[in-house]
Specification:
395 residues, alpha/beta, Aminopeptidase, Alpha-Beta Plaits, 2 domains, 4-stranded antiparallel sheet
Length: 395
């Protein structure tokens, strides 16, 4: 079944309801509820949203154990990003198709394959007649792509577990930590005039050029000395500008430019520290330019605000899952940090050790012809089933 479950669309709720019904049919104890977005978004620690939702659904399924073992949570997000330029796709982004070992379609890699793997891992245990000592929870969450609404709502509802595996795309490696990501908006002011008299105005576009150059320098400084977990990446904490809008008439000097971007948050750095770093850099730039000194760049922090998060790579969760992968899949997973924000930081912040382990290459996520290996998806499900027995214990 294909569901174009982009954030804030009806399909984002449809897929939650689909999984709730399917898991009830599988014999799981399933809770569903309407998420009170207005109430949660008013809280000071709300992680932010970048789309305009007025409704959202929460789902939590439980496969109860005998009651004398630890609880394991498998959590996967069901929302996906828009497809972008349709001409860049070889087919309909929301019509999944198989090409050799690849399943193509928006959301296949990020992260519906991983969500399917955690579901079928539990189904395999049930079908094999395995009884665990501890509970296993399945949580499909909405709103991960733009802040973490679904996981935040779960935690506010009282979710507790002894450990969590998020099957995000990791190429079947282990990611126990990741950097954060803060969404920002800058406004650069100019002075409008007729283009034929442009020297009597101030182009907001021209004034944005040194701003962009300063952001490039800031990114370099922030990546000069990174945590060992992040050293595999050419840029561990990217700073990028994703949108730029300026002007409203070709023969008018533009008096306003608005740019939006993403600031990476380093491991161990607070979002407040990261924000201050960017603000101080642009304040220093403005002080060197007579126009910007009088009309400083305005900075707004909005949308998803992802802190960094970290589970100690020496934690038993990481060690035991690594041993399980090695035994079941006959491969030794690499352990490293991810350069992207995720719900890991919310779970770790709530005291739940969490690691990413899933099928797919993160470079394929959000890209045209997004894809995931079907072989790796099955391998992930096998490893997750085996790990549930290791972690929660067989009764």
């Amino acid at each position: 079944m294909a569901m174009p479950s982009m954030g804030a669309t009806a399909a984002e709720i449809d897929i939650q309801d689909f999984l709730a019904d399917a898991w009830r049919a599988d014999g799981l104890d399933v809770q569903t509820w309407d998420i009170d977005i207005a109430e949660l978004s008013a809280r000071p620690d709300f992680p932010g949203m970048e789309v305009d939702r007025n409704c959202a659904r929460g789902v939590l399924a439980r496969w109860p154990g005998t009651g004398d073992g630890p609880t394991l949570l498998f959590l996967g997000h069901t929302d996906v990003v828009p497809p972008g330029d349709l001409a860049a796709w070889s087919g309909d982004p929301f019509a999944p198709r198989i090409a050799g070992d690849r399943l193509l379609g928006r959301g296949s890699c990020d992260m519906k394959a991983g969500t399917a793997a955690m579901w079928f891992a539990l189904r395999a245990l049930r079908d094999a007649g395995v009884r665990l000592r501890g509970d296993v929870l399945l949580a499909p969450v909405c709103g991960e792509e733009d802040g973490g609404l679904g996981t935040y709502a779960l935690l506010q509802r009282g979710l507790r577990a002894d450990a969590c595996v998020i099957p995000e795309p990791t190429n079947l490696d282990l990611i126990p930590a990741n950097g954060g990501a803060l969404t920002f908006r800058v406004r650069v002011r100019g002075l409008a005039t007729h283009a034929s008299r442009r020297t009597e105005g101030v182009s907001a576009i021209a004034k944005f050029v040194p701003v962009l150059e300063e952001l490039v320098r800031l990114e370099a400084r922030r990546n000069d000395n990174v945590d060992p977990l992040m050293q595999r990446w050419p840029i561990a904490y990217p700073l990028s500008v994703g949108t730029v809008h300026a002007g409203d008439w070709s023969s008018t000097v533009p008096d306003l430019l608005i740019a939006e971007g993403r600031l990476g948050v380093a491991l161990g750095e607070t979002p407040a520290q990261a924000r201050a770093d960017l603000e101080d850099a642009l304040a220093g730039l403005c002080a060197t330019d007579p126009w910007l000194a009088e009309h400083p760049v305005e900075i707004e922090w909005w949308g998803g605000q992802f802190a960094s998060g970290r589970t100690d790579p020496g934690h038993s969760l990481v060690r035991d899952l690594s041993d399980t992968i090695r035994e079941v899949l006959d491969r030794t997973p690499q352990v490293y940090g991810g350069p992207f924000g995720s719900d890991l930081r919310l779970l770790v912040g709530a005291g739940i050790p969490t690691v990413h382990f899933g099928p797919g290459e993160s470079a394929a996520a959000h890209a045209p012809d997004e894809w995931v290996s079907t072989t790796d998806t099955v391998a992930c499900a096998r490893a997750l089933a085996a790990f549930a027995m290791v972690f929660s214990g067989v009764a």
